[in-house]
Design goal:
Structural class: mainly beta
Shape: elongated
Largest sheet: 9 strands, mixed
Strand order of the largest sheet: 4-5-6-7-3-2-1-9-8
Number of helices: 9
Helix content: 10-25%
Radius of gyration: 28 Å
Number of strands: 46
Length: 658
C-alpha cells in the first residue's frame, strides 16, 4: 500500500506507540531566548554604583569578562593592591565566575567568608575566600586558589586573563550506581571545567511515505529522530588535552544504559570531542535525567553522575539579610527540588522594588537576567503575568506610591513598604473620572493589556503612544485635567495616538463615543483599593492565584479568573511568601523527581511547609527564573523565557552607607 506524502499525523504516533509501547512523548516547555541590549537604568530605582571604597586598598582594575585559556566567559571581576607599595595584586571574581571555573561553593553562615572546594578529598579542609559586595555582585578572593594551583592572572582592559597549567586526560571510566550511570574522567592534574545546557533542537518533520508498511521493519533514522522522546543536550568543557586515539577508542566503547522508555535516541548519548588543549563531552540525555559534576583528588578526577535528582543542597548566607537555599522537599511520596532566597526586609541597606523589562515604557519583555542587570539588582524573580504576543502587562505594578498598571480580575497580589511590612491578598483597584458636567465615569483598567468593556486609561508610563487594542475605540485626550481632543481609534493595532506628558488618554471600549466628554470638560480622578489596606503600601506586584493566607491554604483559582485547565495543570512554579518572623521567601519549584511539576495546591503546600503564613503564586513554566549575583540559580538561561516584570532586591554598597 502506498501512503500519501504528508506530515506525520496522530495515526502515525499511535502506530509507533502500539509497536513500541515503551516509548513516551512529553511536551517540553523550555525555549531559547536571545538577550537584549541593556538599556539605560531608570533613575528612580535604587542604584548601586561600585566605588574605590568597596575594595580593601583601592580599585586598580575591573571588568565583566574572563578569558579562560583564550575562551571568553561573562563574569564580573576586580583587582586591587593588597598592600600599598608592595606590587602584590589581589584578584576577586563574582560567584558566577568562580562557578564557571568548576569551583563548588559550600554552605556558610559567615557573610564575610565563603568556603570553596575544588579537586580535594572529602576530609580535606576547604579553602576559605574572603568576600565583599559591590553593586549587584558578591566578589570572592581568587588569589589563594590561583597561587595554590598555579594559575596566571592578568588584566587587560575589561578582560581578566586566566591561564592554567596544561593538563591531560588519562582515561575515562564508566560505572553503574543505584540512581543511574557515572562517568569518571581521570586527569594528571586539576583543571577548570564548565557545564552548560545547550539550546533545544528542533525536531525534523517526517512524511508518512517514509514510514514502513510493516510495523516490524526498522524505522528510518529521520523517523527515529522525529519520534524519539524529548532530549536535552549538555556540554562539559574540560581544559585538558586527550590523545586522539584514546578519544576515538572511548567514543567507540561508551555505552550509557537508559530507562526502557528512553531507548530511542536521535544522536549518541555520550560523545567526546577534542581541540588543542580542550576536551568536550557532549551528553544527549532524556528529559528528567541531568548531569551532576563534581571533582576529587588523589587521583585527580572529574565525576559526572547522570541522575534524576541532580541538585546539590545549599544554605549560603549570601549577604546580610539574604540567604540562598536549595534542597529537595518531600510532599507525600514526591520530592520537589526547591531553590529559594530567604530575605530579611528589615536589614539596613536592603530595598525591594518592582522591575520591568522596557525603558520608558510598559511594553516589552526580556530575560530576567537582562532586566536585573539593567536595574543593578542583586537578586530578582519573575513576577506577574503578561501577554506573550503583544508583550503587555496583565496585573498590578505599583512603585513609590504610583500605580503603573492596575490589577485585574480580583487576582492575588503582594504589597509592601520600606519598613519591611507586607500585605498578600486578592486585590481590586477602583478609579473614577469625575467630570465638571457631573458625570462619574468608572475606569476599568490603568495601563493594562487586559481587554474588557468600559473605559481604560493610559499614561506616559505606558509609553509615548497608545495603539488601540480593539476595533472602533473612541479616544479622548486629556491634558492638564481637561479634555482637549476626541478621536476615532479605527482598527485595532493600526494607528498610534500620542499620550501627553501632562495628562493621559482614555480609551472607550463600550461602544460609547468620546462626545460624552466634550472638548473643554474638566476631569478629576479618584481611586482606592479593595481591601483598603493595600492603598497604604507604596509598592505592589500582582499575579495569582492566592495560595496561603493566615496559615491556611485558600486556593481558589476560578475566583481569580483562571481557567479550569490552568487550575489542574502541573508546571514549574515561582512563588513568594511571608513567614511568621516577617521574612520573605522567594521560591522556585521544579519538576518532582521522576515526574512533572507541581500543581497549584502542591505549590501552596510546599510554601506552607517552608514556613509561609501568606503566599502568592507568580507566573511559572518557562518564565520561572531566580536571579542572584549575575546568574540564574534555578535553571540554565537557555531554557528561561523572556518575561515582562519581576521582583527586585537591591543592596547598598559600602560607599552609599558613608
Amino acid at each position: 500500500m502506498k501512503r500519501k506524502f504528508c506530515l506525520l499525523p496522530t495515526s502515525a504516533l499511535l502506530w509507533l506507540l502500539t509497536t513500541a509501547p515503551w516509548l513516551t512523548f512529553t511536551a517540553a516547555n523550555a525555549q531559547l531566548q536571545a538577550p537584549v541590549t541593556p538599556p539605560v537604568t531608570p533613575s528612580s530605582v535604587p542604584q548601586n554604583t561600585p566605588s574605590r571604597s568597596t575594595t580593601p586598598n583601592g580599585l586598580l582594575a575591573a571588568g565583566d569578562r574572563i578569558s579562560l585559556n583564550g575562551r571568553i566567559l561573562s563574569a564580573a571581576w576586580r583587582q586591587w593592591e593588597a598592600q600599598p607599595a608592595t606590587n602584590r595584586i589581589q584578584t576577586a571574581i563574582s560567584d558566577v565566575g568562580l562557578m564557571q571555573l568548576g569551583v563548588d561553593l559550600l554552605n556558610t553562615q559567615d557573610v564575610t567568608r565563603q568556603p570553596i572546594r575544588w579537586f580535594t578529598t572529602p576530609d580535606t579542609p576547604p579553602l576559605v575566600s574572603s568576600i565583599w559586595h559591590s553593586g549587584a555582585y558578591r566578589y570572592l578572593d581568587l588569589s589563594q586558589l590561583a597561587a595554590k594551583v598555579g594559575w596566571q592572572l592578568q588584566s587587560e582592559g575589561d578582560v581578566l586573563r586566566i591561564t592554567t597549567p596544561a593538563a591531560k586526560i588519562t582515561g575515562l571510566r564508566q560505572g553503574k550506581q543505584t540512581w543511574g550511570d557515572r562517568l569518571v574522567v581521570d586527569l594528571d592534574r586539576p583543571t577548570p571545567w564548565q557545564l552548560t545546557q545547550q539550546p533545544p533542537v528542533t525536531k525534523p518533520k517526517v512524511p508518512l511515505a517514509e514510514l514502513p508498511d510493516d510495523p516490524k521493519q526498522q524505522l528510518p533514522s529521520q523517523a527515529v529522530s522525529a519520534l524519539s522522546p524529548p532530549y536535552q543536550q549538555w556540554k562539559i568543557a574540560i581544559d585538558a588535552a586527550i590523545n586522539p586515539e584514546l578519544a576515538q577508542q572511548l567514543n567507540a566503547n561508551l555505552a550509557i544504559q537508559l530507562p526502557k522508555q528512553s531507548q530511542i535516541s536521535p544522536t549518541p548519548l555520550v560523545k567526546l570531542g577534542t581541540t588543542a588543549n580542550l576536551t568536550t563531552i557532549d551528553l544527549n540525555l532524556p528529559v528528567g535525567i541531568f548531569p551532576r559534576v563534581s571533582t576529587l583528588s588523589q587521583p585527580n578526577r572529574i565525576i559526572i553522575d547522570l541522575r534524576p535528582d541532580p541538585i546539590v543542597e545549599r544554605n549560603i548566607l549570601w549577604a546580610r539579610g539574604v540567604r540562598w537555599q536549595q534542597k529537595y522537599i518531600n510532599l507525600g511520596r514526591d520530592r520537589f527540588p526547591v531553590t529559594w532566597l530567604e530575605v530579611n526586609p528589615r536589614t539596613t541597606g536592603l530595598a525591594l522594588r518592582p522591575i520591568w523589562s522596557a525603558v520608558n515604557s510598559l511594553i516589552g519583555t526580556a530575560p530576567i537576567v537582562t532586566t536585573a542587570q539593567r536595574y543593578t539588582a542583586a537578586a530578582a524573580i519573575n513576577a506577574g503575568f503578561f501577554n506573550r504576543n503583544n508583550k503587555l502587562p496583565l496585573g498590578a505594578i505599583r512603585r513609590e506610591g504610583r500605580w503603573l498598571s492596575s490589577p485585574i480580575l480580583n487576582r492575588g497580589a503582594i504589597a509592601w513598604n520600606d519598613a519591611g511590612q507586607f500585605k498578600i491578598g486578592r486585590l481590586q483597584r477602583q478609579e473614577t473620572a469625575i467630570a465638571s458636567t457631573g458625570q462619574s465615569l468608572p475606569i476599568v483598567n490603568l495601563n493594562s493589556g487586559y481587554i474588557q468593556a468600559g473605559i481604560s486609561r493610559y499614561t506616559s508610563d505606558w509609553g509615548t503612544t497608545y495603539t488601540p487594542l480593539t476595533n472602533n475605540e473612541a479616544i479622548a485626550i486629556v491634558q492638564n485635567n481637561q479634555v482637549t481632543a476626541n478621536l476615532s481609534g479605527g482598527l485595532a493595532g493600526k494607528t498610534a495616538f500620542p499620550i501627553p506628558l501632562n495628562g493621559y488618554l482614555l480609551a472607550f471600549r463600550t461602544g460609547s463615543t468620546a462626545n460624552l466628554l466634550p472638548i473643554g470638560t474638566l476631569l478629576r480622578l479618584t481611586d482606592g483599593t479593595v481591601p483598603s489596606e493595600f492603598a497604604q503600601y507604596p509598592h505592589a506586584i500582582g499575579a495569582g492565584p492566592l495560595l496561603v493566607q493566615n496559615r491556611q491554604i485558600v486556593l481558589n483559582a476560578k475566583a481569580e479568573g483562571f481557567s479550569d485547565a490552568f487550575s489542574r495543570q502541573t508546571a514549574v512554579r515561582s512563588a513568594i511568601g511571608v513567614t511568621a518572623t516577617g521574612n520573605l521567601l522567594i521560591a522556585t519549584v521544579h519538576n518532582r523527581v521522576g515526574g512533572t511539576g507541581s500543581t497549584l495546591w502542591e505549590t501552596a503546600k510546599l510554601l506552607q511547609q517552608m514556613g509561609s503564613i501568606d503566599a502568592l503564586n507568580l507566573d511559572g513554566g518557562s518564565s520561572t527564573s531566580l536571579y542572584l549575583g549575575g546568574q540564574l540559580v534555578n535553571r540554565s538561561p537557555v531554557t528561561a523565557a523572556r518575561v515582562h516584570n519581576g521582583f527586585g532586591i537591591f543592596l547598598e554598597t559600602e560607599s552609599r552607607k558613608q
